[in-house]
Amino acid sequence: MKITLIGAGRVATHLARALKQQHQIVQVFSRDLQHAETLADQVNAQAINQVNQLDPHVDLVIIAVSDQAIFSVIESITSYLPDNLIVHTSGSTSLSVLQNSHYRAGVFYPLQTFSFDREVNWAETPLFVEAAEQQDLAFLTELANSLSHRVYQYSSKQRQTLHLSAVFACNFSNYCYDMAKQIVDAEQVDFSLLYPLIMETANKATQNDPKQMQTGPAMRGDQNILKMQRHLLAETQRNDLENIYALMSEGIYKRHINQE
Amino acid sequence: MKITLIGAGRVATHLARALKQQHQIVQVFSRDLQHAETLADQVNAQAINQVNQLDPHVDLVIIAVSDQAIFSVIESITSYLPDNLIVHTSGSTSLSVLQNSHYRAGVFYPLQTFSFDREVNWAETPLFVEAAEQQDLAFLTELANSLSHRVYQYSSKQRQTLHLSAVFACNFSNYCYDMAKQIVDAEQVDFSLLYPLIMETANKATQNDPKQMQTGPAMRGDQNILKMQRHLLAETQRNDLENIYALMSEGIYKRHINQE
């Protein structure tokens, strides 16, 4: 299959590299030509930065840009690719954002967190496809199957739920790690001491119900420790961390108070 | 070495099982004799539930009970074990809580989260020891080395910092998973779809600075998605999750706003 990528960020880069194994990446578009070239060079594609350079002889155009930019991108490219299947890769953007401007609209959403310098295990990454046209849905499903064992046809509503859940499971848990690191850094304690704890917590939550795996002073309703730890945060002028500590502890306490 | 355990909960159980490999567990004390027996049977020890049954012919007494109970335990046992080394296993309880009642006081703190039905990798679990007497510190260090490659002599203040950090890295990240599961459960979406994301997020944070690994709408300052996701939570009457969503997103946004 012949594929064009719009965007040259983390998602575009990882997708292009993975798709290149079995398909042809024809063009990489970015408003910043240097960004386009950086990715295009890796996947033997043509780098472009003008919409009128878009080649309509492709099977699929993937918009992999920030959610905020998807609408302006589809508006600016649809007239050059009127009959091409065009998809976005966003969890929280509805299919209709494309479909309002373009009839062959679709979604190709990988549920994973991407960093430039880390390999992605595509075979295990869940992929969610959606399309306005039945034929395009079949095409996207086939394409997704060429990357991953875990392919699902999900509606925009289901995808939104997943993405919201992922914000808690991934973005917020990572921020918990970040806050944990700030706390030990301030006392010259080595953050790597917490690595076994972080990995065991994640392992537990993916092998059991995380509610049943909850531990800590808030779950036990240990008011002395809760008070002492809030005091420690207040002492170091970290009101931001203190507020999060209070709200998270309250949430955990209320969730477990009737369980004893 | 001859060791007695006070307590029969998760920490006491995992510690007793691990110590039994190279040492002798003499007694297991619990106010609930059945709890004491359950653990004592696993480690060939005597189960007791009366303080006057405590055998003073041991090298170490480990108090592995909830933080709140440590003070009353030391008060009730010190007269029966006046010359024994007695330690607690708590991150946030100061050495002085024991030392005020007992001269040979110490701490033996494993930085890990314990569940009844999961094996603990003791060799990789960081252990933190502290003692009032130099000789006891050397003894605890030797004992810790018999369990783990990662043994540290930490003050009560350093241990408190570590434990506070662990609450964020472990208890709060687990609650993020729990909230994520509640969100997908409400829409009959399978939580296991998020497993690769959870594991990759934890892996990233233990191989890089979690601040640099942050992703998501709050970090990008994507107000449309932030508004939409808060609305989704409000719609489902989950004000508790909405409040946490708002506070965490604000924290992430502020931490990254000056980075672009």
CATH topology annotation of the largest domain in chain A: Rossmann fold
Q: What about the largest sheet of chain A? A: 8 strands, mixed
Q: Which CATH architecture of the largest domain in chain A is right?
A: 3-Layer(aba) Sandwich
Number of domains of chain A: 2
| Uncertain residue segments of chain A | none
Structural class of chain A: alpha/beta
- The proportion of strand residues of chain A reads 5-15%
Radius of gyration of chain A: 22 Å
Helical content of chain A (DSSP H or I, runs of 4+): 40-55%
The oligomerization state is: homodimer
CATH superfamily of the largest domain in chain A, by name, is NAD(P)-binding Rossmann-like Domain
Mean residue pLDDT of chain A: 96
Shape of chain A: elongated
- Secondary-structure element string of chain A: EHEHEEHEHEEHEHHHHHH
Number of helices of chain A: 11
Largest interchain contact: A-B, 91 and 92 residues
Name of the CATH class of the largest domain in chain A: Alpha Beta
Number of strands of chain A: 8
Distance between the termini of chain A: 57 Å
Strand order of the largest sheet of chain A: 3-2-1-4-5-6-7-8
InterPro entries (chains A, B): 6-PGluconate_DH-like_C_sf, DUF2520, NAD(P)-bd_dom_sf, P5C_Rdtase_cat_N, TM1727-like_C_sf
Protein name (chains A, B): DUF2520 domain-containing protein
Pfam families (chains A, B): DUF2520 (PF10728), F420_oxidored (PF03807)
Keywords (chains A, B): Oxidoreductase
